[in-house]
Amino acid sequence: MTNKKPAKTGNSASPQTNSAQKSRPQNNRAQNSRTSNNRAQTNNRAQSSHTQKSNAAASGSSLMPLLLVVIFLAGLIGAAQQHMLPYGIAGMYLTLSLLTFIAYAIDKSAAKRGKWRTKESTLHLLALMGGWPGALFAQNVLRHKSVKASFRNVFWLTVVANLAGLGYGIKTGAVDMFI
């Protein structure tokens, strides 16, 4: 007795093929389109995920500077209430912070409209004089001047210089002139 295997032809169904595969016509173009769409969706998800991670990282990183602003201003007000610091100093920081925030908002608006911009040196001068809490708040809330590394480096130098000046003024008693 000879065992003969059935010959395989393109039209005959093999034992592994199920009935759903037999009844479903294979359309390569539709399958390629689905594959392309799946790739595009995967790429869009990856980009969206990257954007969400960037936004999450940005919001996570923006939480710390905002917390710094709140703690610093609350500390100034608390020190003034405890008569450790003149109210004028706290008022100066609050006023300059508000003015600096407004300057950033105006500059952001001008940038969007393609109009005349505020000089970076003006924004740095405002931060150096005591408006850095407002500048930091504006950078994080308005998302303005928050990416350019050279600007941010100079900005942080103005923050350090301002705080050093405040510390020196407190230590030497020079801030008492504002009483």
UniProtKB/TrEMBL annotation:
Pfam families: DUF1294 (PF06961). The chain crosses the membrane at residues 63-81, 87-106, 154-170. The keyword Oxidoreductase does not apply. Residues 1-55 are annotated as: Disordered. Keywords: Membrane, Transmembrane, Transmembrane helix. This is DNA-binding protein. It comes from Shewanella baltica (strain OS155 / ATCC BAA-1091). The lineage of its organism: Bacteria, Pseudomonadati, Pseudomonadota, Gammaproteobacteria, Alteromonadales.
